[in-house]
């Protein structure tokens, strides 16, 4: 009787026992750090078969509270809760600061596709944000999905010309283009791999002893480049955007390595040395 008198529930609720065949459903516990309305909806949907049993709804709801939320429940005045509606009211009022902001269809206008973002990732992110909007306007969703795409991407043109396309059809078309983009990227990566295999070999991958000079061999290049018999290496071709642009080779006329570290320049310099074409003012010695 002492426990009943200290309970936030009235005596009528406390004295109500569950049905003999009642099986306790599984609940996601509430610890006081999430949206109370969401937890309340979860509780009501789980207990939908017992909605008419007000006392059972109250007592079962109390078992879903943990941590801070359970501590709060035990601070309620004794016998102050006489119905599930009253319990719901004080619960949502206590945790009103955790209410999720209700988004409208206009929220989709804030979704901007980044230039580096793939079509597949954009579709996934757009779907996630749309799912947060209750009763989202399909026309607005379709328009915003299209308008955030790059006008230079072929998908934008197809969506623009396809006036009858709904959002589901737009998703399908976008996913097909995502496969196309991924195939093109795969081919590009394969091409770059082959290019890198044909790119200049550095000294550290093919060690060799070369003639050493009293001045850096990059300076020798400046002294020889005006000689009529001197030949620079062909400039690098292909996509150079992935190469290391903090380094530059004057002999190869491209990034990714230094002049001093370029094997072909050292080999060419060795060839000129053996032919006796180097200017005498360049003093040299061998290992």
Comma- or semicolon-separated keywords:
12 helices; mainly alpha; disordered C terminus; 3 domains; two-stranded antiparallel ribbon; elongated; 287 residues; Non-ribosomal Peptide Synthetase Peptidyl Carrier Protein, Chain A
Largest sheet: 2 strands, antiparallel
Instruction: Tell me roughly what share of residues is in helical segments.
Output: 40-55%
Beta-strand content estimate: under 5%
Report the structural category. mainly alpha
Rg, alpha carbons: 37 Å
Amino- and carboxy-terminal Cα gap: 101 Å
Provide the number of structural domains.
Answer: 3
Secondary-structure element pattern, one letter each = HHHHHHHHHHEHEEHE
**What is the average of the pLDDT values?**
76
Strand order of the largest sheet: 1-4
- Overall geometry: elongated
Number of helices: 12
Unreliable runs: 201-207, 283-287
Number of strands: 4
What features would you describe in this structure?
- With 287 residues, the chain is mainly alpha-helical.
- It folds into 3 domains: 2-98, no CATH class; 105-198, Non-ribosomal Peptide Synthetase Peptidyl Carrier Protein, Chain A, CATH 1.10.1200; 203-285, no CATH class.
- Helix content is 46%, strand content 3%.
- The protein is built from 12 helices and 4 strands.
- The protein has helices spanning 2-6, 11-14, 36-46, 54-63, 67-73, 84-94, 119-131, 138-147, 154-161, 167-198, 217-224, 263-275, and strands at 212-213, 248-249, 254-255, 284-285.
- It is elongated, with a radius of gyration of 37 Å.
- It starts with a helix and ends with a strand.
């Amino acid at each position: 009787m002492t426990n009943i008198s200290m309970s936030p529930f009235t005596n009528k609720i406390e004295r109500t026992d569950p049905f003999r065949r009642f099986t306790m459903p599984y609940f996601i516990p509430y610890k006081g750090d999430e949206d109370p309305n969401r937890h309340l909806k979860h509780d009501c949907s789980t207990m939908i078969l017992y909605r008419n049993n007000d006392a059972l709804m109250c007592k079962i709801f109390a078992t879903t509270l943990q941590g801070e939320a359970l501590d709060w429940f035990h601070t309620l005045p004794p016998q102050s809760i006489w119905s599930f509606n009253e319990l719901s009211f004080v619960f949502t009022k206590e945790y009103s600061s955790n209410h999720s902001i209700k988004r409208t269809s206009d929220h989709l206008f804030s979704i901007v596709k980044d230039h580096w973002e793939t079509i597949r990732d954009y579709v996934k992110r757009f779907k996630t944000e749309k799912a947060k909007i209750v009763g989202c306007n399909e026309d607005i969703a379709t328009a915003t999905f299209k308008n955030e795409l790059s006008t230079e991407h072929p998908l934008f043109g197809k969506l623009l010309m396809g006036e009858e396309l709904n959002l589901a059809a737009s998703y399908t078309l976008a996913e097909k283009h995502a496969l196309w983009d991924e195939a093109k990227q795969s081919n590009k990566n394969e091409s770059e791999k082959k290019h890198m295999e044909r790119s200049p070999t550095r000294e550290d991958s093919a060690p060799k002893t070369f003639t050493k000079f009293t001045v850096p061999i990059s300076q020798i290049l400046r002294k020889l480049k005006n000689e009529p018999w001197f030949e620079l290496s062909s400039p690098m071709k292909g996509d150079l955007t992935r190469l290391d642009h903090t380094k530059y080779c004057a002999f190869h006329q491209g990034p990714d390595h230094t002049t001093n570290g370029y094997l072909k320049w050292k080999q060419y310099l060795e060839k000129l040395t053996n032919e006796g074409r180097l200017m005498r003012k360049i003093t040299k010695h061998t290992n």
